[in-house]
Amino acid sequence: MRKTLMPLTDRAAQRPLNERRxxxxxxxxxxxxxxxxxxxxSAFEVETCCPGGEASEVNASPAKEEYKRRLAAELxxxxxxxxxxxxxxxxxxxxxxxTPAKDDTLRxxxxxxxxxxxxxxxxxxxxxQSPERILDAPELLDDYYLNLLDWNAENILAVALGDxxxxxxxxxxxxxxxxxxxxxxxxxxxxxxAPRGEHxxxxxxxxxxxxxxxxxxxxxxxxxDGHCGRVGVLAWNDTMLSSGSRDATIVHRDTRSPQHVLAxxxxxxxxxxxxxxxxxxxxxxxxxNDNLLNVWDERxxxxxxxxxxxxxxxxxxxxxxxxxxxxxxxxxxxxTADRMIRFWNVSDGRFxxxxxxxxxxxxxxxSQHDKELVSSHGYSHNQLILWKYPSMVKVAELTGHxxxxxxxxxxxxxxxxxxxxxxxxxxxxxxxxxxxxxRRCESESVLSAAAWTGASxxxxxxx
Length: 463
Hints:
Elements: H1 8-12, H2 17-21, H3 39-48, H4 62-75, H5 112-119, E1 133-136, E2 149-151, E3 156-161, E4 164-169, E5 175-180, E6 188-193, E7 200-205, E8 210-214, E9 219-224, E10 231-237, E11 240-245, E12 249-254, E13 261-266, E14 272-277, E15 283-288, E16 293-297, E17 308-310, E18 317-322, E19 329-334, E20 340-345, E21 350-356, E22 361-366, E23 372-377, E24 384-388, E25 393-398, E26 405-410, E27 417-421, E28 425-429, E29 459-461
Helix pairs in contact: 3-4
């Protein structure tokens, strides 16, 4: 049975005619005018605000926060993001018609912002996500506390494999065996090129020795004692050589003198695994398995106590790197239980900043030409990360190694980083920017094409 609806005119007839004519029509909802809505701004507001309308305090990554900050700067012309997202009008006031009193970009948005974003040119560089070359490195020891890789100013890469040290010329591709330890169970535990382009290399061994080798003649110049444990790290300061050992001591040596020992420092309770001289040759940073970072003064070698004892890390401190453009800034990385990269001002021992990498920090390298930092990691991600300093925003995250990336070294031109991992491979990553004089032209690879002539694949084997 159909239900008869009462005509609307029956109710309206009870009202005066003039009231019925001027009555505002009712609608069930408002339909916004999409032509006046900036969808990019709307999406930004939805993502950056929680249901209550307040900014979200979720633990966001630094990279995402930096992206949101730059997006807000473009969309809101540097002002706070408190504009109305939806507009219910059919037309928007033209910018030319705005009076000075109404000239507030925070109250009205225009689609001109979108055009501004499109016109902006990208001035950054492309970061390759895959290595430029790969070398096989059989018998590379899987030991976090050793330092088995170094790259000198003559473009020669040195790597210790088991009981031997090999030199790989990145210009010609030639591979030269430098030395091999003698004795059962003896192996190489650390290597370090001498500065100033000299053909000298220091080699530390598991039988407590520190050897000096002439790489041009593949001949040992001298062998020095001084430790009662393996020598896991070496660091040069002009003609002075410093060595750190499992016996928890640091020994300074003058390699020109028959009585080579200058000083013996006691500042750690366990093995010394990190050792770096500052570029000015005054401060020495040492890290140990006792979770301590010590800063020593070269002018106080006769005094045993370190200048600063920094105990913020919660695991072994192996990764150390001095900032090349701020001489008092030091970066340090902690092991598996810490996973932090920390920055220090060694002029007063002040802590500057820290970032949680969520992985064991094995090595650090500053860029020579840009304000960037490269870190290599072990458990559990086994990756390399390129950071923007000082914001510590991730520029790139590089994967490929299947085991922890224990060592890193930088090419003499400052554009390429080589990583050595427990998966027994060396990978070359051209991820750093060139010198300012070379930015206008395409820079050639430090790995000369002559080094790969006749290679059918990108993977070669050292040995």
